[in-house]
Amino acid sequence: MNNEDLFKKVVSHCKEYGFVFPSSEIYDGLSAVYDYGQNGVELRNNIRQYWWKAMTQLQSNILGLDAAIFMHPKTWKASGHIDGFSDPMIDNKDSKKRYRADVLLEEHQEKLSAKAHKEVEKARARFGDSFDEAMYRTTNTRVVEYLNAIAHIDNTLKEGLETGNLGMIKALIEELGIVCPVSGTKNWTDVRQFNLMYSTNMSAVESGEENLYLRPETAQGIFVNFINVQKSGRTKIPFGIAQTGKVFRNEIVARQFIMRMKEFEQMELQFFCKPGSELEWYAYWKEQRLKWHLALGTEKNSYRYHDHVKLAHYANAAVDIEFNFPFGFKEVEGIHSRTDFDLSKHEEFSGKKLRYFDPETNESYIPYVVETSIGLDRMFLLTLCAAYQEEAVDGGEVRTVLKLHPALAPVKAAILPLVKKDGLPEMAEKIYNDLRFDFKLYIEDKDSIGKRYRRMDAIGTPFCITIDHDSIANEDVTIRYRDTMEQRRVKVSELRDILFKETGMSALLQKLACI
Predict the structure, then answer these.
(1) What is the span of the domain harbouring residue 136?
(2) Which residues partner with 322 through β-bridges?
(3) How far is CA 288 from CA 62, 130, 222, 513, in A?
(4) pLDDT tens profile 76-108
(5) Which member of 54, 299, 387, 485 has the lowest number of beta carbons within 10 Å of its beta carbon?
């Protein structure tokens, strides 16, 4: 199965099995907006809980927050969003489609990177164990040409954005011969900046009041509550504040399913530290966040770090954790050293002191901040892409299975009476009622047992518990393992302990703590 087919199947699977639906579909939908179905909302909640517990439970110096979506308009003036929260957009005159100019360039870089990688792999196969990749990348003419082209794009894009010379970016797109994916032509408009914030009014009737904005990020809610959390929590530097929540961005480029949406959810940590120590904490969180991903069992070579060439004006270090989606490596999480920019700006605009008094050194200072920010929806898509598999089974049948980590699975176990008579449904009901206080379960007696297994495989249920005629006499059941399809007999009294051990969040957190 090629990557394009895989992605189409994941998108189709999401709708068919109740993970993700197009929003307002009966009215032909709404661009870049999606709803999470019965299985999607459970998976999403489990991913969020894993992040939340890893932050606030495993870390003794991180506290939680849930700030309001609406904030005082000066918040966004201080943060720079009103003046500078925009993307460089370009239109194709033939297709009438609008694109982010920087994304078009990044996609061209991906193609160049893939070509360089292909050359390297060909050489590796040719030279075997004696192959020196580092030397080859600096001496092979083609590879050097590709890598220099990538660097040229980085440097030109950075200069154009930093100086506001958007003409440089259009000229670069034309120089590289980038075409519109729809029309296939190079008939481009000029590049211009487009602000991404949604605005509204406090009252139902506009009365000249300042605009309110739907927050485009959760970070500012943390910064304006820095003193409240620090004092009420009686915390000392270094410490962090974690928050999850909805954010809104007027994304013009809507594509790749839930990868880029107008309404999405962030999971963010702002970690406050002493000035001068921020790069040590940056390195710490860079490592810790990749461990969080790998604890789920995703292949390590599916991830990579991508250091920012163009840093935001407030940052002194920034890196993305990228995942190899079916459509290429894309950002899932960012780690940024934001210096003291945010607290300094809010102190300036509010007139309130946002400083920390260090009792050990008897000094007062504005803390520096290291941020980790992950998109819950992108993590959801990553999880499905990594889990989706089609496997040949006995008889030439192909089963579709989501090999989700059991702690993330929407349903932990299915209770399946073999037939709808002879007391089997009643025993299944009893087991269901006994376990439902601790686990999300599913109970069903329709169709053959094989068809029911396949439905559970398709939504990622790690265990199926089958009740047959021997179960009533022996007080035991057959438990089937999703990934191996192995079946074994266990006592009903053992089920709770098995499910706790295999599907509980605590086992996943223990694994994370040991990495």
Answers:
(1) 88-192
(2) 304, 331
(3) 14, 34, 21, 10
(4) 999 988 877 778 889 999 998 888 898 899 889
(5) 299
Residues 6+ apart with CB under 8 A from 310: 154, 157, 158, 161, 162
Give the max Cα distance, the chain: 80
What residues contact 422, with CB distance under 8 A and at least 6 apart? 469, 472
> Do 321 and 451 belong to one domain?
no
Burial 291-314 (b: 16+ CB within 10 A, else e): ebbbbbebeeebbeeeeeeeeeeb
Assigned domain for 197 exists: no
Whether residue 169 is contained in a domain is answered as yes
- The domain total for the chain is 3
Q: Is 79 within a domain?
A: no
One domain, residues 343 and 435: no
Paired strand residues for 254: none
Q: Is 346 helix (H, G, I), strand (E, B) or coil?
A: helix
pLDDT tens digits, one per residue of 257-269: 999 899 999 999 9
Mean pLDDT over each residue of the chain, to the nearest integer: 92
Residue 141 has pLDDT above 80, yes or no: yes
CATH of the domain at 61: 3.30.930.10
Count CA atoms closer than 13 A to 54's CA, side-chain side.
29
Pairing mode, strands 356-358 and 476-481: unpaired
